[in-house]
Each structure stands twice: as C-alpha cells, then as structure tokens.
Amino acid sequence: MSIPEWKWERIAMDFVVGLSKTIRKFDSIWMVVDRLTKSAHFIHVRVDYNAQQLAKVYVKEIVRLHKVPLSIILDREMDEQSDKTIQVLEDMLRVCVIDFGGHWDKLLPLCDFSYYNSYHSSIEMAPFEALYGRVCRSPIRWFEVVDVKPLGADLLKDAQDKVRSIQAKLLAAQSRQKKYADRKVRNMAFQAGPVSCRLALPPSMSGIHPMFHVSMLKRYHGNGDHIIK
Questions:
Q1: What whole-number distance in Å separates Cα of residue 148 and Cα of residue 12?
Q2: What InterPro entries does its record include (predicted)?
Q3: What is the DSSP letter of 151?
Q4: Can you give the pTM of this predicted structure?
Q5: Cα first-last separation, the chain
Q6: Which of 18, 68, 190, 202, by CA, is between 20 and 30 Å from 134?
C-alpha cells in the first residue's frame, strides 16, 4: 500500500461497537485516522445510524476540517500499520468508556486531545506535531502560562486529571499491542534442503525471495518450442 503524499488525503476508519449506552443514547465510536500523520478523530454515533446519517456526521466532523480524502481504507483493507493504530485506539477507548460511564460521549474530545499529543513510534513524534508542525501545549501546563489563577480552575484541574488518565490508558494499550505483536514475530532462517529449493535469480530480481517449498514444484510439460539448457 502506497505512502500518502499529504495530510488527510488517505484515511483509515473503523467502529468501536457494543459500548454501554450514554444518557444521550450513543453506543458506538467512529474512529477516523489519517494514514500519514496518524492524527485521528473519535466520533460518538449509534449502531442504528444509516448511511445517510453517517454521511452527515462525516461531513460535519471530518470534511469541514480536512476536505474530502482521495481514498478511504476500511478494516478489511488496512495495511499492517493502520491496523495496528486502530487496534491501539480501540483498546484505549474501550477502557475509557468503562471509566467515564454514562457520559463517555462528552469526554471523547479529551481522548482526541490525549492521543494527538502522545508520541507515535512510527512517525517519531506526536500526531499533533506531524499535522501542524509544532508541539501542542497540554492542559497539564495551562497553569504555567498565567500569573493569576485562571477562571474555571476546577474545570482545568479536572481536564488535567482526565488527560493524564487517558494518556496512561493509551500507553497501556500500546504496550499490550506490542507484546501481542512480539509473540507473533520470530526470526526464521531459510536454507536449501530436502523440502526447500533455491532459485538462481538474476540481479534484476534481487527483491524476490529465492527460497520456496518443494510442494510448489510442478511437472514441466514442454511443447517442443522451448529450449532447456
């Protein structure tokens, strides 16, 4: 799968379903991720939304901010990197929903913010920095930029606590996904033997792995036109 050339041109999306219903009757989260910057939006929806309702939400929450993408990758079509990002986000969001209870839909913007400002190893920076070219000031540091205690200090303190909690859940989700991936990865050495063969490929085909199993061999049936050396 080709690497996107610009931000929010090619996106991946999936749904987190089966969540506890909020007071406003939302029971699902729509995850939309930019494949280049790894920035994402988490949108509260309902599992009974039809295509027209989802299209209206998409225009309101995504198109107005990032224009219409060139391509949309669904779950079954995702490359490994996009799939890994989606899995980490789903893990984090499910834990946050449990913690936030019946008001989780109102706290999704803090999940957005926390994810945007968390380091992503595949791009070696936070998605916010990849998207906007600068580091974002976290709510955790809002008290540092003013000499006088700001209005709504309790609200800021609550935001600080929730951002810290969400970031901890994101780190835990990333760690769980890494452990799962590491269990599936193992170093394998291939060499010619009784059940494997090596092709003598020309330099122009160096990108092709030369080893294959004997089960892939088939009897050659010539028609007299081929010259075998």
A1: 43
A2: RNaseH-like_sf, RNaseH_sf, SH3_Tf2-1
A3: T
A4: 0.61
A5: 39
A6: 68
Pick the CATH number of 10-184 from 3.30.230.10, 2.120.10.30, 3.30.420.10, 3.90.180.10: 3.30.420.10
Domain extents for the chain? 10-184
Q: Are 166 and 116 in contact (CB under 8 A)?
A: no
Give the Cα separation of 175 and 91 in Å (integer). Answer: 11
Candidate ranges 7-16, 75-84, 144-153, 185-194; pick with highest mean pLDDT: 7-16
Structure-token pair, residue 67: 């224009």
Highest mean pLDDT out of 7-16, 91-100, 137-146, 176-185: 7-16
Between 79 and 6, the more confident residue is 6
Q: Across residues 160-166, what is the average pLDDT?
A: 59
Largest CA distance in the chain: 93
C-alpha torsion 112→116→117→122, nearest 10: 140
